[in-house]
Amino acid sequence: MKVLLLGAKGMLGSEIAMCLKSSFNVIPYGKEELDITNEFLTRNKIKEISPEIVINTAAYTDVEGCERNSEHAFKVNAHGVKNIAESCREFGSKIVHISTDYIFDGTKKPPYDEDDQPNPLNVYGKSKLEGENFIKKTCENFLIIRSEWLYGMRGRNFVSFVIDTAAKENKLKIVNDQVGSPTYTKDLSEAIRALLKKDCKGIYNAANSGKCSWYEFARKIKEFKKIRTEILPIASDESNRVAKRPANSVLNCNKLKTNTGFVFRNWTEALKEFLESA
């Protein structure tokens, strides 16, 4: 089965490419090969390749950057997705799109289900939600996968931030009032493979099990890497960030488990493996 993978050079895209190569004919495209904001090029490339599946991991994920440049955020995360969705509908490809926990406002105490009402707090979440809505309006054959707090081998992420900053600073202040599930891109890629093999459609949550605050996440990185830098907890309003973040963005992944049999391991186990292999 031919799979066109967009955003293939990014942190998640590169991991998906490695994970799927033994099961699918993966055709990887980075931004240099295909800019999804270019409607003409996107349509022509999907027509030329004629893939059964198009996986979109391309996104503008800088949450603070989205607040400063909302036009670019919506251009990539919403209208770029619209370009892909329209081409997939026209040429009969299934669209698989990676979305985010940030479409929720974080006021729900239990984990979020797939059918909970979105209410994003920041431009990033709003732009990603608009991308989801374009897909639902345009395509019948779609799979939207919502994940959260991603880290992996490539690109900047929270794990690399903690390690790099700890090497230069004596103290590190980390927010302690936002809770989520840190998710290893390797594990997420395996869940995506399970969803593809079962030809699942609709919306699915996908994240490592368990939960923690960003502060607890940082403390676990410190423990596993034997970092000496002091890590201190702070409240969100002390963090000097413009974009609001949800207080709780834990996702319920029972639907994925029921329909595929795939079970995510605990985030601490995944993190330990990642840090040992990095």
Automatic annotation (TrEMBL):
This enzyme's EC code(s): 1.1.1.133
Keywords from the named record: NADP, Oxidoreductase
Pathway given in the UniProt record: Carbohydrate biosynthesis; dTDP-L-rhamnose biosynthesis
Annotated ranges, domain RmlD-like substrate binding: 1-277
A GO cellular component annotation in the UniProt record: cytosol
Organism superkingdom: Bacteria
NCBIfam families noted in UniProt: rmlD
Function statement: Catalyzes the reduction of dTDP-6-deoxy-L-lyxo-4-hexulose to yield dTDP-L-rhamnose.
Family membership noted in the UniProt record: Belongs to the dTDP-4-dehydrorhamnose reductase family.
Classification via PANTHER family: DTDP-4-DEHYDRORHAMNOSE REDUCTASE, METHIONINE ADENOSYLTRANSFERASE 2 SUBUNIT BETA
Name of protein: dTDP-4-dehydrorhamnose reductase
